[in-house]
Write a structure and sequence with these properties.
This protein is mainly α. The protein has ten helices and no strands. α4 runs antiparallel to α5.
């Protein structure tokens, strides 16, 4: 039963889209053919119009609720990208207080970590497990390097901010993993699609004029596309709509330019200019 409820999210988006549109078309055709059954009412009653309107209202409610949840989770993932970029950047800047070889080791690990985070955010689902293993390995290396480097910091008061920055970086990794697991419940999508298919059947049964069927079909198609967009936003690993990685890319460029920038006053051997 659980696998059936998760069916819309477990398939590629285009497969779900084709299946949903085909099911809607089939339901509309069956509803139209049902008009020819013995005892079928040739003219739609006011009660039938009320039922159809109530179904559309329920459909709008389900769509609005699922869209609100999906956008909320998407915004959370987007904000966490910025928070993580800031945490990594802070750790990188504080690592510049270290003496060699700790400074080069920490800086190199942080640079590799940023590169892997960008790949992890944009990789297909099949490549995610390997990149996650690399991610966790780099975090372990970073913490091990921090434990060795912190006692060497002079003055010692600067060691605590470095440890805090690396600890926040590790915390943000867990936050982003948890945010990618937060989804709109599969039951809500299944209910949304079931109602959409049922309304397609009612539309085929209750409408008489071809122009009404065309207009109703276009409306349901738009609602179906909107539903698929919500489903796409809800799939952080497989969907087309993903959180923007530009903050991490800006950090990547900053780190790559870092050593040349941060060393311009280091070991110059010349007195500082007056004033």
């Amino acid at each position: 039963m659980t696998n059936l409820l998760a069916l819309p999210e477990s398939q590629p988006l285009w497969v779900t889209a084709l299946g949903l549109i085909a099911a809607m078309a089939l339901a509309a055709l069956l509803g139209f053919l049902a008009r020819r059954l013995p005892g079928s009412i040739p003219e739609p009653s006011s009660q039938a119009s009320t039922i159809l309107g109530g179904g559309l209202g329920l459909l709008g409610l389900l769509l609005g609720f699922s869209l609100s949840m999906a956008v909320g989770f998407f915004e959370q993932r987007r904000t966490l990208v910025i928070d993580e970029a800031n945490a990594i950047g802070t750790a990188y800047l504080r690592a510049q207080f270290l003496d060699e070889p700790h400074r080069a080791r920490m800086s190199g690990l942080l640079a590799r970590y940023v590169d892997n985070r960008i790949l992890l955010a944009e990789a297909p689902a099949a490549e995610v497990p390997a990149l996650l293993a690399t991610n966790d390995g780099l975090l372990a290396e970073l913490w091990a390097a921090t434990l060795v480097a912190a006692p060497t910091v002079a003055p010692p008061v600067l060691a605590s901010p470095l440890v805090t920055a690396v600890n926040e970086l590790i915390d943000d990794d867990l936050k982003r993993k948890a945010a990618r697991l937060a989804r709109v419940p599969s039951e809500l999508f299944m209910m949304l699609f079931v109602v959409l298919i049922a309304i397609s059947a009612m539309l085929g049964h209750f409408t008489q004029r071809p122009v009404d069927r065309i207009e109703g079909g276009v409306l349901l198609l738009i609602i179906a596309i909107a539903s698929l967009l919500v489903l796409d936003i809800n799939l952080p690993k497989d969907g087309f709509v993903r959180e923007d990685q530009r903050p991490m890319r800006l950090l990547q460029e900053s780190i790559r330019a870092g050593p040349a920038v941060y060393d311009r006053y280091r070991d110059r051997g010349a007195p500082a200019p007056a004033g």
